[in-house]
Amino acid sequence: MVRPAALCRASASNNSSQGRSQGGRGGRRKARLPGLFEVVSVAPPKHNSLGVHELPPNTHNGDLIHVQGEDYVVSSVVLRYKLVGGRYQRDHNRLEVQQMGRFFTLQYLEQQFHTSHGGDGKGGDGKGGEDRLH
After folding, report:
1. pLDDT tens for residues 30-45?
2. Burial, 88: exposed, middle or buried (Cβ in 10 Å; 0-12, 13-18, 19+)?
3. Under 8 Å CB-to-CB from 105, ≥6 apart: which residues?
4. What are the tens digits of pLDDT across the range 72-123?
5. What is the pLDDT of residue 62?
6. Of the four listed, 7, 47, 83, 108, which is most buried by Cβ atoms within 10 Å?
7. Total-model pTM
8. Three-state secondary structure string covering the chain
């Protein structure tokens, strides 16, 4: 469980497009360089792209970032590579994020679930699998 005090704060720069060319696909930039990330909100019902933003290159799981006027918690970092000329090159960087309120609500619900089931992590009635059929 990530504690609020352990969250790092990073802010997305709005002028990250200065000095960089636009990608060839409909004007969308690819986040290839270290520090450039496509930020994607993974809240259901669908994944929303929040755009490509310049963030610290060491941004990782559990970090708190500020994008488009809202705070998000990084759920996962995806670095995609492709094989070019016998070497792997970074092709795309993506941050999967959740809004802060949703993140802490899910943490609270997970904690309540584990305390109501005896904390053994096996689910059921907390007896550790005694109700299996033989």
Report:
1. 777 777 899 999 988 8
2. exposed
3. none
4. 999 999 999 999 999 999 899 999 999 999 999 999 999 999 998 876 555 5
5. 92
6. 7
7. 0.63
8. CCCHHHCCEEECECCCCCCCCCCCECCECCCCCCCEEEEEECCCCCCEEEEEEECCCCCCCCCEEEECCEEEEEEEEEEEEEEECCEEEEEEEEEEEEEHHHHHHHHHHHHHHHHHCCCCCCCCCCCCCCCCCC
Place of tokens 């290159």: 57
Structure tokens belonging to residue 97:
């994020």
Place of tokens 């994944």: 47
Six token digits for residue 2: 């990530």
Residue 22 tokens, joined = 């636009």
